[in-house]
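A favour between colleagues. Tell me how you read the following sequence-structure pair.

===
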Amino acid sequence: MGQVHRPGGRGTGSQGRATRVGLGWCLPRSYGAVVGRDESEVVGWLLAGDPSIRWQALESLLGSPAAEVGAERARVATEGWGAELLARQDAEGTWAQGLYSPKWVSTTYTMLLLRDLGLPADNPQAQRACAVMLDAAVGPRSRGGIGWASETCIAGLVLSILSAFEVDDDRLERFADYLLGEQMSDGGWNCQYRRGAHHASMNTTILALEGLIRYERHRARQAGRRTVVGDAQHRGREFLLVHHLYRSHHSGKVIQRNYVRFAFPPQWHFDVLRGLDYFRDAGAPRDARLVDGIDLLRSKQGPDERWPLEHRYKAREWFDMETVGRPSRWNTLRALRVLAWWDAHDPIPNPALRP
């Protein structure tokens, strides 16, 4: 399988920028410390995709100027997948007339996808949907809880969406309180905790962590809660690390097959690529217990230097973005930025899974 190579040194001036030429892109001759020259074809392929792929490639792989990234990101609302999702919004500000169901076309899951596409936070349609979600959960008739979102997975999803779209409302503290109160003794979360679960779930844990990191960036400092939210994330990351992201901490065996199959959109499901992308996004220290996941990620890179879409979670969808078994821009983008984060420092050897 192909392996990513990254030279040192950062390109400057026009040589460090990707420029639009007609309907295509002219790649820089120097890609800085993030993307190597041998990846120019792959990066060009990413830049030929949807605006949601392009702006993230410009930002995380090419290190393009903020103005260039922002201009491309703005296109998410008017072109491609983002525009199509916005066109499907109901007159009430929801999607498919539902807050959480039907999957994957309800308001929650459509907004989750718009979050991942990078729809700008100030988009009026997104702001309206956030208001509907928040009012339905914490409205005039609520009694201190979070209503329809009073389940750990849903609370994590909703907090991540409201924070990503920068909703400035004190009611977000209720979602953060709920997640902090549901954290288990092993550091993770499980939506079955109140029904007797004794061990955290990778699926629930990644949703809680994604919600808390976005909340931390958006409101935790303002609410004076940065330390407690940071500590909760540290404990949650430790839960994932104890399991090397996908292995039983008792036997070393793969916990679930889906953890090692990379899907997009992953919806509420955990997999190794999603976990690694969270560690990258959090700027967490590289830990030897992540090497197993990094090695798995590298092993899935094809001879064409791309990563395939390995799985899709079946339910109703607005449209198909990619095809299972074919090269995936989403998986390739995420894999390359994870490896850029990981390879920016000295190698860490892969430790034995068992003492």
Residues 1-16, 28-33 have pLDDT under 50 and may be disordered. The CA atoms of residues 163 and 215 lie 5 Å apart.
